[in-house]
Write a structure and sequence with these properties.
Layout: H1 2-22, E1 37-39, E2 43-46, E3 51-52, E4 67-69, E5 74-79, E6 82-84, E7 89-93, E8 101-105, E9 109-111, E10 114-116, E11 145-146, E12 149-150, E13 170-171, E14 174-175, E15 205-216, E16 219-222, E17 226-228, E18 235-237, E19 242-251, E20 255-258, E21 260-264, E22 267-268, E23 273-275
Parallel strand pairs: 1-6, 2-7, 3-4, 5-8, 6-9, 7-10, 8-15, 9-15, 10-16, 15-19, 16-20, 19-21, 19-22, 20-23
Antiparallel strand pairs: 4-5, 11-12, 13-14, 17-18
């Protein structure tokens, strides 16, 4: 009996000694040169303000606006911390490249409000139907309806004229469960049922890596857009996007919704609602 107690005690000591190593702060490649992101009211982040160059560059000369790295096809923000207040939303104005968003956070990321990368819906107004509908960042545009008629949606699996997209951030021709590469949904085709309409934009894509804890009591969404036409039962739907969250710990009781969701953490809150549901895996060694 004494021997068993001693073995149990040694096991407890061993686990305690190992725990700090297993759950130490992640080594996030962020120099914090974009400062702290503190959002207290509805905010649109203009991705066209990003610097141009390698994402590893110091961004102190253009803080808060990120770096567009064409070799990565991503707008990378290197924050010291993130705090998004309840009832506040963050949306994005697309970069000319329509690149996805990467948030590298040295310490904690607290999302009590909403981060929205969903695609834009069908635009019924003329002449707006001549312009491809915008996606979320990292997604693909919906098809326009021009003088030559209906057009296909953009992206590797964009919807044909009169059809919804068959492609999203995972499956159907591109993407994978690891969300590598970081890519959103395809646009739907335009159509002319009881009128001429541009297609819907696909959902965007975002990667959030926090060195300590990512707390999500609000929501992160990257949905495709949909709209019913005047025929009543006709629907044209764009592809949904992709969301990947990496942290030492992911906590909260909020919502993460996209066509594909990936969580990487040493611990995760069971109250967090993931759609589609996914099982968290430990963070890998190559985070970016």
């Amino acid at each position: 009996m004494k021997k068993e107690i001693k073995q149990i005690a040694l096991l407890v000591v061993g686990i305690a000694a190992l725990a700090p190593t297993l759950f130490a702060q992640l080594n996030v490649p962020s120099d914090g040169s974009d400062g702290a992101l503190n959002i207290t009211s509805n905010t649109v982040i203009n991705l066209n303000l990003a610097s141009y160059g390698a994402w590893t560059n110091d961004n102190s000369a253009n803080p808060g606006n990120g770096i567009y790295d064409p070799t990565k096809w991503a707008i990378v923000f290197k924050y010291s911390s993130i705090s998004i207040a309840a009832n506040a939303s963050v949306t994005f104005s697309n970069h000319a490249s329509h690149a996805p968003v990467v948030w590298l956070v040295q310490s904690n990321a607290s999302i009590n409000g909403t981060v929205n990368l969903s695609g834009n819906g069908v635009d019924y107004a003329s002449p707006a139907q001549l312009v491809p509908t915008e996606p979320g960042p990292g997604g693909f545009r919906g098809g326009a309806f021009g003088p030559s008629g209906a057009a296909a949606g953009y992206g590797p699996a964009g919807g044909q004229p009169g059809q919804g997209s068959t492609g999203n951030g995972y499956g159907n021709g591109y993407g994978n469960p690891k969300i590598l590469p970081l890519m959103g949904g395809c646009g739907s085709g335009s159509w002319n049922i009881n009128g001429n309409f541009a297609g819907a934009g696909g959902g965007g894509a975002i990667l959030i890596i926090a060195g300590q804890t990512a707390t999500i009591n609000g929501s992160i969404v990257a949905n495709g857009a949909s709209a019913s036409t005047s025929c009543g039962n006709c629907f044209v739907v764009s592809g949904g996007g992709a969301i990947r969250v990496v942290a030492n710990s992911i906590q909260g009781n909020g919502y993460v919704t996209a066509s594909v969701v990936r969580t990487e953490a040493n611990s995760i809150s069971p109250q967090l609602v993931l759609t589609p549901n996914t099982i968290a895996v430990p963070p890998g060694t190559n985070l970016v």
